[in-house]
Write a structure and sequence with these properties.
1 helix; elongated; four-stranded antiparallel beta sheet; mainly beta; 3% helix
Length: 196
């Protein structure tokens, strides 16, 4: 199946591609949760970033959207890794990544908000291998750097490790203008530490 969303719309169009030369309309679903910002697919479910995370079972032509409320603001970009959905959000303008456990999409649960960098909003988040996410921002943290920095965010080792307070993410700021400095931040439920 192909999912189509675009413009300033809250509608998700699902196309069947049994014949790739002639995609067929399966259905259009109005989500009524604000503008659709990004869409990903996992285990036959659509994950939609809008005002909240919205899930839709693609295996059923009559499924209703499931809304997973969040702490505020909207969901921007989605990346999937190891049963988790990582979403960029502008909430509090602190480089926040919102994490959901989507290992069983019908039982998706909010895992947590992780503020990673002050005065930064990530606009995109992408999976990079099975160990890292790349979160991208046009902002220069603290006015430092010449090129828009990229952020490498390591996925949680496991939900149980994060729940016990083990470090869940590693974040490296890499300036491509000056490749000599790499800062690593570790974030968990109890705070943030920095090394350089």
């Amino acid at each position: 199946k192909i999912l189509v969303a675009g413009g300033n719309s809250d509608k998700l169009t699902i196309l069947g591609i049994a014949d790739p030369a002639r995609p067929a309309l399966v259905r259009t679903v109005t989500l009524s949760d604000g503008v659709i910002n990004d869409v990903a697919i996992t285990n036959g479910w659509a994950l939609v970033a809008a005002n909240d995370l919205v899930l839709l079972d693609l295996n059923s032509t009559t499924s209703a959207p499931l809304y997973i409320p969040d702490a505020g603001n909207f969901e921007g970009s989605i990346a999937l890794a190891d049963g988790f959905a990582f979403l960029a959000t502008p909430h509090f303008n602190d480089g926040r990544i919102r994490v959901y456990d989507v290992s069983t999409p019908s039982s998706t649960r909010f895992f947590g908000d992780f503020p990673l960098v002050p005065s930064v909003t990530f606009t995109s988040v992408l999976a990079y291998s099975d160990r890292y996410l790349i979160a991208i921002t046009p902002t220069r943290p603290g006015g430092i750097g010449h090129d828009p920095p990229q952020r490498y965010v390591r996925r949680p080792r496991s939900a149980s490790a994060c729940a016990r307070g083990a470090p869940g993410f590693s974040l490296a700021t890499i300036s491509y203008w000056k490749k000599t400095r790499v800062s690593v931040l570790r974030s968990n439920h109890s705070g943030t530490t920095t090394s350089g």
